[in-house]
């Protein structure tokens, strides 16, 4: 996966808000995927320090997605959420864990094409 250019954003900046809205509109027009959010603690969240990158298709060198690069703060949020989740997960039975793993596999299989396109 190749990336083209970084767009550093500062929260609350009018210029950055205009850029973000413009980038979203461009993504819609071009059919590019917008993958600038992280799934942390059961919900999609904005990165702590947004840094957008354009991902290029290596075969065509055409833009295919916009992603956000995570920061140390994003990792800290994700690790803290995982630690909280582990407390309740540790209390589950083997059967509950197996059921959860089967459900995860089911979801992955149902979204294989989408994941393959993104990769």
Question: How would you describe this structure to a colleague?
Answer:
There is one protein chain. The chain is an alpha+beta fold. It has a single domain, classed as Aldehyde Dehydrogenase, Chain A, domain 1. It has 4 helices and 6 strands. The chain has a 4-stranded mixed β-sheet with strand order 1-5-6-2, with helices on one face. It has a two-stranded antiparallel ribbon with strand order 3-4. About 5% of the residues are buried.
Give the terminus-to-terminus CA distance. Answer: 7 Å
Report the C-alpha radius of gyration, rounded.
Answer: 18 Å
- How is the main sheet built? 4 strands, mixed
Main sheet strand line-up: 1-5-6-2
What is the top-level CATH class?
Alpha Beta
What average pLDDT do the residues reach?
Answer: 80
How large is the share of residues in beta strands? 15-25%
Helix-strand sequence = EHEEEEEHHH
Low-confidence parts? 1-19
For this structure, what is the CATH homologous superfamily? Answer: Aldehyde Dehydrogenase, Chain A, domain 1
Q: CATH fold name, please?
A: Aldehyde Dehydrogenase, Chain A, domain 1
């Amino acid at each position: 996966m190749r990336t083209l250019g970084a767009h550093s954003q500062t929260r609350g900046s009018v210029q950055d808000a205009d850029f973000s809205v413009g980038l979203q509109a461009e993504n819609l027009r071009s059919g590019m995927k917008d993958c600038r959010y992280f799934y942390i603690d059961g919900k999609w969240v904005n990165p702590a320090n947004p840094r957008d990158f354009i991902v290029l298709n290596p075969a065509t060198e055409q833009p295919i997605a916009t992603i956000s690069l995570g920061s140390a703060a994003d990792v800290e949020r994700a690790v803290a959420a995982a630690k909280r989740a582990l407390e309740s997960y540790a209390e589950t039975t083997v059967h509950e864990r197996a059921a959860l793993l089967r459900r995860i596999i089911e979801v992955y299989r149902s979204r294989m094409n989408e994941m393959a396109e993104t990769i």
